[in-house]
Specification:
rod-shaped; 4-stranded antiparallel sheet; alpha+beta
């Protein structure tokens, strides 16, 4: 007859938890031993910029600074340009000084004096002095061209040469000289009316050299 009684625990029935605990402790101790054996090496930081990178950065900086300086130079306010000099005819005056010679009938020449002055501006060259009548020609002393400067007038002796008495205008109302002037700005042909005194002296000299009702041919020597 089989007897039925309470079931008794077998071997290691109640030791499972303890064994697991012991195993965990053993693993923990082993891990601790492994951690103790790890050697920690210090990590050296890598340089941020190599020598080539520093050089490139310096060059780029110089280029930027130079470009900024050039931009400021090109955009700087500039003073206004000085005005151009005046035309030579605006600064030069020709004045009759007198000293008209008194020719005799048949004389081919007579002379007088003029003053050429300048009131401002750069020097002006007097390149030529003539007169409009085809019956007369002109020579000048000093010979042209000559320069006139501000504040330093020049005296010129004008000699009239009679080419043909029959075509001489003895009573010109406003006789003038034609003067070629030049400065740094322009070259001009300017007529200068020398005034009533010159008109009277010129008429007197022409009438004396070429009396009325004469047709004397006189050529310039």
């Amino acid at each position: 007859m089989n007897a039925i009684g309470p079931i008794e625990p077998g071997d290691n029935t109640y030791d499972t938890g303890a064994a697991a605990t012991d195993q965990s402790r053993g693993q923990g101790q082993g891990l601790g031993q492994d951690l103790d054996q790890v050697t920690v090496h210090p990590v050296r930081p890598r340089p941020l910029l190599t020598r080539h990178r520093r050089t490139a950065l310096a060059v780029a900086t110089a280029v930027v600074v130079g470009a900024a300086g050039l931009s400021l130079y090109l955009t700087r306010p500039r003073p206004p340009a000085p005005p151009p000099p005046l035309y030579p005819s605006q600064t030069v005056a020709v004045t009759y000084r007198g000293d008209m010679t008194h020719p005799q009938a048949g004389d081919a020449t007579f002379s007088f004096t003029v003053s050429v002055s300048q009131d401002s501006g750069p020097p002006v060259a007097v390149r030529r002095i003539t007169q409009p009548s085809e019956a007369l020609s002109v020579t000048v002393a000093p010979h042209t061209p000559f320069d006139v400067k501000t504040g330093s007038p020049r005296t010129a002796r004008i000699t009239m040469h009679i080419r043909e008495c029959g075509n001489v205008q003895r009573n010109a109302g406003l006789p003038f000289l034609v003067v070629t002037l030049r400065n740094v700005r322009a070259k001009q042909l300017q007529s200068f009316i020398l005034g009533e005194r010159y008109a009277k002296d010129l008429s007197r000299a022409l009438t004396a050299a070429c009396p009325p009702n004469t047709d004397v041919m006189s050529k310039t020597p």
